[in-house]
Amino acid sequence: MKKTLLFSIAAVTSILMIVCMISSAQAGVTGRLKGKVIDKGSRQPLPGAVVKIEGTFFETTSNAGGEFSFICIDAGTYDIRVELDGYARQSMTGFAVYPDMGNEILFELSPRGNDGHFIVLDAESVSSKSDDPYMRRLVDSKTFSRQPHHSLNDIILQSSGGVYQRAITTSLPLGERYMRTDELFFRGGAARESGTFLNGLRLTDANTGTSFLSLPYGAIDQVTVQTGGYEAKYGQFGTGMIQIVSKRGGKSLAGSGEVVTSDYGTSVYNLSLGGPVTDQIRFYAALDYTAAEDAEPGVFGHPVIRYNTTGISNPDPVINDTAIFVTDQNGRLKYKRGARPDRVNASDLTNFYANVSYTPNAVMQFDLTTLFSSIKRNQFSSHILLSPSGVPREERSTYVVNLTGKYFLSPSMFLEGHIGMYS
What is the count of structural domains for the chain? Predict the structure, then answer.
């Protein structure tokens, strides 16, 4: 049996203890937030306002100048609540905290009236400033949910201007060999010159220096692409760095589902569900499946061999399209365009993601993240089609497990440990 199996393993296990202080560099998956609370009418600062990040233990009080700040916040999307006696309570939804970045925000409180005392604002409608000095492209789930994306690579390319190489072909005596690569290139460099991180865990194949990663679309919370100015703590990347922050369970149960089909034999299925299990445990899970009956309808889908009653010969150079040559019972040659019989040249992509967060008390937090991604491709290639098993296949899989523990020493300092594996 002739079978092409692409499989490489790079297991990375590390334990890191990072102390985050006001003057120190932040961890790769944490950000900063500072702001000011003022009276909407008089524009005077309001001291003593309680500012809380919903779903976390981050809570502080504005100082005499109405200012407040948080550091070492896990990257993600949050709701922020501000309360002060005599003023309407204000809540801002969907505020994004990005890795290694700080944001500044202004809350304008109005005196509490008889017509209500609770105001909800959307983060997109409120102006905020970033202290990011680097060349970053930032995309959050709210942004790309309004765009026609269905994959992680689509999001990265839309935000960065990089180049995506899906596959390469190699000439062989009987035809061509197709090999899927799924590589991203930035600023004209090689794929191995860029780095990929998922929730702070570096995902790099030790043999090739590249990453093969595919997340369920519903599991992506943020994508940050940086093409310059990154710190030395991330490693020696010459062209770019991708930081992905996945979703976590919220304070209420929520889920979604989507089915996308086409007339060309490609279907996409997405499912996600997340929420609380108990007051201390939350979960989030997402699954997507993409089935393509004709994985390469263009250049890579052209026939490389011809079947007939006498054997195999080279293809007709005039016909260079998605076609399979077959013979009828009388030996007459015919071909079919589009998807091929027996799912030859078809592909199946499966992605599964799960996260469980556990907060036993106000000073401890644990997160367990798992990811499985697999692509199976029945290649239309001469040296594989002749396999006696009749099941030509190229397979590629990724497994990721990441456990994070965090212990808060004070509002401005904590210890964090990571144990992760990428294969």
Answer: 2
